[in-house]
Amino acid sequence: LSARNITLEDLKNSMAVDINARQLLNEHIKGKINISDEDVKKYYEDNKPKFQRPESFRTRHILAALFTPKELRTQSISELQKNREYFFSKAEKKIDDIIKELKEGADFEELAKQKSDDEGSKINGGDLGFIYKGVFDPAFDEAVSKLSLGETSGKIETRFGFHVVQLIEKQPSELAPFDEMENAIQKFLFTEEAKKLVQDYVEDLKKQATIKTFFP
């Protein structure tokens, strides 16, 4: 608030105006929008490309983070960036050693539990669940796309550090079924219709009001 030169009272007044405006608009559109089942079904049929899910895959991974969770908790950003080359080399050596252990027969899941820097997945043996292609770093997607089921990748570099990945399952691109998308479509159509009603209402208010412009 200080940085923006705004008082607490100014903020409260602004919030009050916003709440009142929302209540007014909600009252204006209440009961005036009816989205039928036929409307929802028609939108789905007319826009099927929008509901085409991309290819997905399920993997396990082991991460040698550029900056480990412990380092992020105990050092400042400036300190980490200053010693980036050191952390980079340390992470790369760690993943190289892990890949060597895997090649020598170590169990991927157990190694992930013991050595991965990804605190979210290590407890599950590095299992990331199903992920749509395009969500992760392109280097990650590219490496996974070259794997056969059960195969383990080489070293993968992303902005987070270094990974080694094992492909568990693959699913092809597919059309999301209507029953899974029905509620989302209903909400979308309602919102779009509400926007039109609100816009019309605001335009009517403008015609009835005397408007003064204080800034060019």
Detail the topology: elements first, then pairings.
Blueprint: H1 8-29, H2 37-46, E1 52-53, E2 56-65, H3 69-74, H4 77-82, H5 84-103, H6 108-115, E3 127-132, H7 138-145, E4 156-158, E5 161-171, E6 174-175, H8 178-208
Antiparallel strand pairs: 1-6, 2-3, 2-5, 4-5
Helix pairs in contact: 2-8
CA-based gyration radius? 27 Å
Termini separation (Å)?
A: 26 Å
Order of helices and strands: HHEEHHHHEHEEEH
Number of helices: 8
Number of strands: 6
Task: Name the strands of the widest sheet in spatial order.
Answer: 3-2-5-4
The profile of the biggest β sheet is: 4 strands, antiparallel
Mean pLDDT: 91
Describe this structure in words.
The chain is α+β, with helices and mostly antiparallel strands and 216 residues long. Helices cover 51% and strands 16% of the residues. The protein has 8 helices and 6 strands; from the N terminus they run H-H-E-E-H-H-H-H-E-H-E-E-E-H.
Quick take:
By secondary structure, the chain is α+β, with helices and mostly antiparallel strands. It is built from eight helices and six strands; from the N terminus they run ααββααααβαβββα.
State the main characteristics.
alpha+beta, 51% helix, 216 residues, two-stranded antiparallel ribbon, flat, 6 strands
